[in-house]
Amino acid sequence: MQTILSRAGAAPRSGCKACSNAIDTLGRRVTSARRKPTFTELFTACYSSVFATAALVDAVRKDDRRKELDRQIEEVRKEIADLQDPRKPSGSGDLETPELSLRQMDILWRSLKDIYSNRPYMKEIHQPATIGPSDLVEALKHEHYGCRNPPRTIDYDRLERAIIREECEKGKYYREPRNQAQLLRESLSTEHLVQKLLDRTDFLPEDQTGPSLHKARSLLEKGSLGLGFTFRSINSARAQDNTIQLNKRLRSLVASSNLSTKEKVGRVCYNLLVSPHPPDIHTYNTLIVAFNKSGHHAFAEALVASFFQYRLLQPTPSTFIAILNHYKCTNNHGKFLRALSCITGLDNRTGAKVRRRHISDIRISPTLLPWASDTRRRTLTGEWIWDHLPLSQPLVEEIIGGLLHFKLFDQAAAFFISCMQSGVNISLDIVKCFLDECIDALDWRAAVRLTGSLARSDSVLQRLLGAGNGEGISYIASRIRVLLDICGLGAADRPPSKSLLVSLKVSGPSFAKFLKTLAQEAGPSQEPLAHSRDIRRSKSRVLQLESIWKEYEFVRKTTISIESKLLYPDFSTDFRGSMALQIGQTALERSIQLNQEFGELTGLTNSVLNESRDGYASQEITSLSEEDIPAERESLVLAEDATQSEKPEILDYEKSLEPRLIERRPKQMLLSWSLPGERGVFQRTAIHDAKMMRTG
């Protein structure tokens, strides 16, 4: 407009004076210089823009905060609803077990804390004290105690059904990424998991083919930006359906018998990478169980390590069941005990991945103090407050089975008694397995703990017998009688002494009531004849001695472990020196005692061998004819000359010891139980058969 007016003013005009004045006036107004804005106008404009931006940012933050509060309120509502409405059995045939109450879980959590805090040394768990191999002892256990060795296996079908039920549940919230930073971290963790799975295929046979491995590796090379993971919250229902279909496909892939291991792993990795969402906890549960079920424990180990070290996934009720079973399959007793510490909040590295708070958060926000003060649900370890993992009946049974697998019978008995005291229902199969394995191992300590607890508390005994559901009550009562016999309390004609009951912390009337209850449930024992009673007593005594010998081996190994720990540099040099002298002196005394026993056995062996050699030589000499005698003498003379020409090797420690020949260690005689004699008593006798001797 300004240009048009300027050109109009410069154009030639006619003689009309009024028109010329009007055009000149408009041209001067347009071409006049603009005035500069004042400071007030500039400040107002900047002030308005700044406050508009701040209002926009504040609105976005308030919206995010409102969504977070809504989510937390919804979580609390769900937790309150779960606490108020206990779970009901589903109609799918596999009944869902009800959750344990807080009182029951608190008792079990404290029992697990005691087990972990008072755990044996790793060397004792790796090489536990066991009864010696003896055919006679095995025969007596089967004949006298009725021991049986049923295979202890996990029901993978039941565990898979539980995992499928969890992933199909509606309204259950598990931790998931909620912003771009968390999604990127989950993508990188998925890449790391896939890389670990692919690396483990390098140890498989090279003749196996795996075309899917190359596809997975090429897709992995694109990086996290090429994976294209999205948020599950965009469409939760569709994300849940995708997870169900993915887990179903992975389960069938791992169980397939037509594919090689490399092809299975390649397809699993490819499906994880092309999935629209990062693998959630349900996918982890599915793969851990599937790999362990098929025997590929190395790939399951990669998933367990990823769960603990690289992901922030919240565990489901079946997660730690699968993890504990994995440690059983791999015989990893150290990580099994660490998993128990994670359940109870004693682990200061990862915990159970449920929830944690730093102690500085409690100081900053006093509103969290009631939450942190609940010591039944949480434990302060290090600088963090860790939530305990909620327990369930399948998880409790898996813990008992794991303790039995690693031959921690005393710890299993303590946890079993805690279950009975808290009223936790345990299946009849687990009860039978627990009692049978304690008897088969002749574990004296577990037998004393169990029988003492049952004799002191009639309610615990009734709960244990109630687990039999009618048909198994007599069997449980008979197994308890066997445990009494292992402790030396099973003789009906010889009641236990008062001092023995005092050491067990059991009163006489309580023990008499305990025996009466067992007699009512298992039936009165038949009175054998005098001769049969002596034989049964002798059999019981042999098994009791083996049980006590096993306990002695346990104490001896524990003592050696403690002695080795006292030589660590954590102690002073003087203390370590005195301990080294003490340990060396003890070892020297043991060596001298062993040398004396070895000499006695060697003398007995040499006398037996000399007698047999003399008898054999006399028979050979009488069988020789007169013509062969000169030739025989000539061969003997040649043998003597050859012996004298050889120089013996002599041990000379600065001539402080007498010279002696280096000879091969003589055979070591073994001790074994003999058959019952005239009085029906077993005895330890030496074995003279050369086939049964250990050589040096």
Properties at a glance:
three-stranded antiparallel sheet, disordered C terminus, single chain, 696 residues, 5 strands, 63% helix, two-stranded antiparallel ribbon, 28 helices, mainly alpha
- End-to-end distance: 117 Å
Strand order in the largest sheet: 1-3-2
Q: Count of helical segments?
A: 28
Shape: elongated
Structural class: mainly alpha
Level of helix content? 55-70%
* Cα gyration radius (Å): 41 Å
**Could you tell me the number of beta strands?**
5
Q: What is the beta-strand fraction?
A: under 5%
Largest sheet: 3 strands, antiparallel
Low-confidence stretches: 84-96, 624-676, 678-696
Average pLDDT: 78
Description:
With 696 residues, this protein is an all-alpha fold. Among the domains are: 2-31, no CATH class; 43-85; 175-313, no CATH class. It is 63% helix and 2% strand. The chain is built from 28 helices and 5 strands. It has helices at residues 2-10, 17-31, 39-84, 102-117, 122-126, 135-144, 156-167, 180-200, 211-220, 236-255, 261-274, 281-294, 297-309, 319-329, 333-344, 359-364, 369-373, 393-405, 409-422, 428-440, 444-456, 458-466, 473-486, 498-503, 508-522, 530-565, 573-623, 628-645; strands at residues 356-358, 378-381, 384-387, 671-673, 684-686. It has a 3-stranded antiparallel sheet. A two-stranded antiparallel ribbon has the order 4-5. α8 (180-200) runs antiparallel to α13 (297-309), α14 (319-329) runs parallel beside α18 (393-405) and α19 runs parallel beside α21. The protein is elongated and about 160 Å long. Mean pLDDT is 78; it is low at 84-96, 624-676 and 678-696.
